[in-house]
Write a structure and sequence with these properties.
Blueprint (H helix, E strand, L loop, with lengths): L1 H4 L4 E2 H7 L1 E4 L5 E4 L10 H8 L4 H4 L5 E6 L1 E4 H4 L14 E4 L4 H6 L3 E6 L2 E7 L6 H20 L3 H12 L8 H11 L21 H25 L17 H14 L17
Parallel strand pairs: 3-4, 4-8
Antiparallel strand pairs: 1-6, 2-3, 5-6, 7-8
Helix pairs in contact: 7-10, 9-10, 10-11
């Protein structure tokens, strides 16, 4: 694949060293690297995006740096044939400073790597077609990093359990949908997304799957909340085929709880608007 090999790929270590590192007004560490040409990847746009994260939340993420690059890749995916044998180095992270058609086909939305004890998240801007897509990819990574470092408030878990026991419709991601069904059983009109034969099904640890659901749903709520601070969007834009969206009133309850935990920075505002019928 000549197109692939004509582009110099950087290891995670080299990318971390060469990236233009900055600190946002909220304390978030971020960086840019490579040929970022789209309007939503300009430095001004990225600074506004990073600045969305509330300062109270940003303090939890002091050990992470978010690097906006054209493409992030896995060494395992690059090692697809003999011509690419140089990349047969396991599941290492690589960065393409310039996107090509061949590399874009092998890239993934983000890659995490530890460099000199610090955590880096490389975000593939070329796979995010607009500011909405890039923002949500960034925010969902921020939200999961928050959960990994700080966990979830028990009060939020109590609220999720109450909603699940009340059989509220839908969820906010496929992970939350599947683990909620495993933890609390399906709502009356739901079909579990995961299917296992009786022979292959492994015993379910109720505490483990319950915590997985809580963490997934909390991370989703944080990401959607951050997205609402960054831009105005229609909740229906988050719809996917694999699961029904969470009922709007239930989502609003979750978002207000996140808002109480992480008030917006100056220049950002939170509001929930319901569409009028008629």
């Amino acid at each position: 694949m000549p197109d692939l090999l004509q582009t110099d790929l950087l290891s995670a270590e080299a990318a971390a060293a060469q990236a233009d590192k900055r600190v946002g007004s909220n304390g978030i560490r971020f960086a840019t690297l490579g040929d970022l040409r789209a309007p939503h990847t300009s430095l001004t746009a990225i600074e506004r995006l990073v600045g969305t994260v509330p300062a109270r939340l940003a303090k939890v993420l002091e050990g992470s740096t978010y690097v906006f690059v054209p493409l992030a890749l896995s060494g395992a995916r690059l090692a697809g044939n003999a011509a690419e044998a140089a990349f047969q180095t396991g599941d290492r992270t690589f960065v393409a400073p310039k996107a090509t058609t061949a590399l874009t086909e092998k890239a993934i939305c983000h890659r995490n790597a530890t460099v000199d004890g610090a955590e880096y998240v490389f975000l593939s801007t070329e796979l995010q077609s607009d500011r909405f897509a890039l923002a949500f990819e960034f925010f969902i990574n921020v939200a999961h990093d928050l959960v990994d470092v700080a966990g979830m408030p028990s009060t939020f878990g109590d609220m999720l359990a109450e909603q699940a026991n009340a059989r509220v419709r839908g969820e906010t991601s496929i992970d939350a949908w599947e683990t909620r069904i495993e933890a609390f059983g399906p709502p009356p009109d739901a079909v579990p997304a995961r299917s296992h034969s009786a022979q292959d099904a492994a015993p379910v640890d109720p505490v483990k799957v319950r915590n997985e659901y809580f963490h997934s749903a909390f991370a989703d709520a944080v990401a959607i909340y951050l997205l609402s601070l960054f831009l105005d969007f229609d909740y229906a834009d988050l719809r996917e085929r694999e699961y029904p969206l969470l009922a709007p009133a239930a989502l609003a309850t979750r978002l207000r709880a996140v808002h109480a935990l992480y008030p917006p920075n100056p220049g950002y505002a939170f509001s929930i608007l319901y569409r009028r019928r008629g």
